[in-house]
Amino acid sequence: MALLSSSPSLSITSPNYRYYASRRLCLYPITATHVVAPNLIDKSSLIISETSSEDQLWAAACLRVRSFHEFKPSTFGIQDHKRYLAEREFEALKERIAGKRTGFNRVSCLNATLPLSQLLSLFDDDLCAQCKFSENGEDRVVVGTLDVNQCTNLPDEITGKKPEGIEGQFARGYLSNVCVAKELHRNGLGYDLIATSKAVAQKWGITDLYVHVAVNNEPAKQLYMKSGFVYENDEPAWQARFLDRPRRLLLWLGLPGNQNW
């Protein structure tokens, strides 16, 4: 299954980085020859965890740039532009995790990583060069990433309805910047990331978890709905036109402990 890219409107300078959610949850076509066959990777070496390590956050920022943007190879200064975008996301990500963004009670970056040695044996790609980091003497690659946000709403996005009142300030959360390296789509990494994000959200006391998805992004909708999310609301057409992005849906998931779950 081709995967999503669930990034927020990534004006990386706004509280919710401004990659228009259209790009956040936007599907970019890739040829089958670029995709590793399903179940070819060794899941026993997969690690999914929260991180505040700058090296790993930088690798996650680079993966988001290559997932949420399309670049023409002939574009002048393309490498400088990619680095500029990665630096902006990196700095914004650090600020969000450090609690310096107004409106966010807590933000965590979850990364799925694999050993560099395993990926080099599968293909020779810039993924290994761009999204690599070292930890405990081992070279690993960020192959999937997302943010868990504890907050009442994400800027420029449809706001969830549950729970109501003041409880929504700490019991409501959103997933954002969900993406998996295009070479590794159809290997279940998106499901693994979301499963871990549920555990993190529940640990924080979140009872109502939301995610936004573009209406035309069928693979992403399938991923979320198979993970337990259901439809709650959709974005008005005028708002999508104003923000110059595809209209999107708001999906809801009740976590254990929620009386509606």
Automatic annotation (TrEMBL):
GO CC entries: chloroplast
GO terms of molecular function: acyltransferase activity, transferring groups other than amino-acyl groups
Annotated N-acetyltransferase domain residues: 80-256
InterPro entries: Acyl_CoA_acyltransferase, GNAT_dom
CDD domains: NAT_SF
Pfam family name, one: Acetyltransf_1
Protein's name in the database: N-acetyltransferase domain-containing protein
